[in-house]
């Protein structure tokens, strides 16, 4: 962890990995201290409570997602290609284990037991992705590059659920190829070619 720019970043990176492997309640500040090589008091200095740590972690995850989506929109214009690039990004992350699972999807599975402040951030992440996917679906439908069988909002939610469900299946089977296999029919269904 020493290659990270500062102690708070190292703490957040460690917490994210621990959440990915064991959930929000599956780690303590003692676990972070062991991995990062600092005292628990140092963690409390930067993040007075685990709630503070969780809230900042998800908030930064949202910022990163927002920046990534913006970059994707700037580099790819076609809405269908945007959806493909989005799924390809996750397929690559799963394949190389750099981000084998969305931390917010993991936390969403624990929503009933999360502190309210952390749960609010997790919901904000899903609203961000839902709004973005809705705009992609709307543009794709208007441009004729996506075939929508439901309202754009419904298609967006279904697509988001497919992506996160495919992550879960890939994790369950221990096979990164499962992700792309599951999403292929969803992308085909949205394609005008498949509709004819």
Notes on the protein architecture:
It is a single chain. With 196 residues, the chain is mostly helical. Helix content is 76%, strand content 0%. It contains ten helices and no strands. It has helices at 7-22, 29-36, 40-46, 50-75, 79-95, 103-108, 116-143, 152-173, 177-190, 192-195. α1 (7-22) packs across α2, α2 crosses α3 (40-46) and α5 runs antiparallel to α9 (177-190). It is elongated, with a radius of gyration of 18 Å. The termini are far apart. The model has no long low-confidence stretch (mean pLDDT 92).
Q: Could you give a short account of the major beta sheet?
A: none
N-to-C span: 52 Å
**Could you say which overall geometry the principal axes of the C-alpha atoms support?**
elongated
Structural class: mainly alpha
> So how many helices?
10
Let me know the number of strands.
Answer: 0
Cα-based radius of gyration, to the nearest Å: 18 Å
Strand content: under 5%
Uncertain regions: pLDDT < 50 for 5+ in a row? none
Estimate the helix proportion, in percent. over 70%
Indicate the mean pLDDT: 92
Order of helices and strands: HHHHHHHHHH
Task: Give the secondary structure arrangement, pairings included.
Layout: H1 7-22, H2 29-36, H3 40-46, H4 50-75, H5 79-95, H6 103-108, H7 116-143, H8 152-173, H9 177-190, H10 192-195
Helix pairs in contact: 1-2, 1-4, 2-3, 4-7, 5-7, 5-9, 7-8, 8-9
In short:
By secondary structure, the chain is an all-alpha fold. 76% of the residues lie in helices and 0% in strands.
């Amino acid at each position: 962890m020493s290659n990270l720019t500062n102690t708070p970043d190292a703490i957040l990176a460690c917490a994210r990995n621990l959440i990915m492997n064991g959930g929000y309640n599956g780690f303590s500040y003692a676990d972070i201290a062991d991995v990062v090589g600092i005292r628990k008091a140092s963690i409390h200095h930067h993040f007075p409570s685990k709630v503070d740590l969780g809230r900042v972690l998800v908030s930064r995850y949202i910022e990163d997602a927002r920046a990534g989506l913006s970059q994707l929109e700037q580099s790819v214009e076609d809405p269908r290609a945007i959806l493909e690039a989005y799924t390809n990004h996750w397929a690559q992350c799963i394949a190389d284990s750099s981000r084998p699972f969305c931390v917010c999807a993991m936390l969403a599975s624990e929503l009933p037991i999360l502190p309210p402040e952390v749960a609010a951030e997790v919901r904000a992440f899903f609203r961000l992705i839902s709004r973005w996917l809705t705009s992609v679906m709307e543009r794709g439908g208007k441009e004729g590059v996506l075939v929508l069988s439901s309202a754009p909002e419904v298609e967006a939610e279904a697509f988001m659920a497919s992506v996160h469900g495919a992550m879960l299946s890939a994790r369950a089977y221990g096979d990164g190829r499962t992700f792309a296999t599951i999403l292929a029919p969803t992308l085909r269904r949205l394609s005008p070619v498949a509709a004819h």
